[in-house]
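Hi V.,

You were right to ask for the full record rather than a summary. Here it is.
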Amino acid sequence: MKKDDHSVGLVTPKNIFFAEPPNEFQLESGKKLGPINIRYETYGVLNVDRSNAILLLHAFSGDAHAAGYLSETDKTPGWWDAMVGPGKAFDTDKYFLICSNIIGGCQGSTGPSSINPQTGKPYALSFPLITINDMVLTQNELLNHLGISELFAVAGGSMGGMQALEWSVYFPEKVRSAIILASTARMTAQGIAFNALSRNAIMSDFRWQNGNYYGKEIPARGLAIARMAGHITYLSDEAMHKKFGRRLQSREEYGYDFSNEFEVESYLQYQGDKFVERFDANSYIYISKAMDYFDLGARFGGLNEAFAGTRAKFLVVSYSSDWLYPSYQSKEIVFTLTKNRKDVSYIEINCPYGHDSFLLETDRQSSIISSFLGGIRG
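Predicted structure:
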């Protein structure tokens, strides 16, 4: 653990349990699930009138560990540590930050790898399909547990932005502001196609065994390939050119074989292998499908109608090199909010990091978010 005056320091994950049978939680699909566990972390102090709470919403492969360290020997801080802490964009001297692992995940919350109490075995594919809306409704259960009836802000990038949008539409009376980074109001055909590619990589691994691999060899190769495919979409052509170019990994001339000759090949293989150590293949399948289902305006008859009842002040940020959720998708959100005469600010940050910019472009992003939060009044 690094010593840092602007770090939240050591954090302890917490859990809440709810939806005990016969009071199971009803999912958007109509299926029921219970009991449910949600893993979460908090940073900062909730004020007396409980008005300073901000809900941080993680992206696809994220978790509840947004900031700080889990132990004295922990070398890697939370996934948004550069943004969360004393004096940072999400200032823990001012705000009470909450971050939970989504339902369907594999980092402490109930998901396909959890034990089904009816069978005593992991759910695997008997776990019901989930949606972004289900994620938000279970997060609302967490807020009820914490006694928080209104959020100062919801904030997230990528899939986290989808959740933030869903919060603003589904619970308009509970959300004062929403920060949407590198996200979209609906999954496009291209996004669905990439997710389908990744799911097929996992399902084609003979060790997947129709999801029943728990206690056996995991479908490591399929999951690694899925991550490799996904990771490509998080980068940009410029970033990959600067980082790798056409450099060879460990030789000066072509070997004319099928080994990982190029640096970029070895990098992707490393990312895939590293991912296998911390993520569940079935969770990958379920979460990617939940993203495919996401279409914010579908239940309202259109995006314009979806935003009609929102009350939040919005900050929408896109990134010039993001080709997974390019800026035109953020602009569609901004245009529709503006058409509804909602309070919305928008900025496109010019940077080379691709979709991952919301995790990497923290300096400029921090000043933008700090200014936005500072402008919200009671």
